[in-house]
Amino acid sequence: MTNDQKLSSIEASFKMENLPFDSACYKRVEKVLCNKITVADAISELNKKYGVPQK
After folding, report:
1. What burial class does residue 29 get, using C-beta atoms within 10 Å of its C-beta: 0-12 exposed, 13-18 middle, 19+ buried?
2. For residue 51, is it left (φ>0), alpha (ψ between -120 and 50) or beta?
3. Cα R_g (the chain), whole angstroms
4. Which of 10, 20, 26, 54 is most deeply packed, by most CB within 10 A?
């Protein structure tokens, strides 16, 4: 499966769950798939964006 197919699948999953998947999310997932950033860093950035409190 190519990165584009994975990205499309992830986006479809978000839409099925009625979760936001804007251009910022798209870019972060793309960076993770291309190994430019770690999953933990991407999640941390999204948590900051959406104001998720840290434990």
Report:
1. buried
2. left
3. 12
4. 10
Whether the CA torsion 48, 29, 23, 15 is positive or negative: it is negative
What is the rounded CA–CA span in Å between residue 35 and residue 8?
17
Query: The whole model's pTM is what?
Result: 0.65
* Span 27-47, pLDDT tens digits: 888 888 888 888 888 888 878
Q: Report pLDDT digits (tens) over 1-37.
A: 788 898 899 899 988 988 888 888 888 888 888 888 8
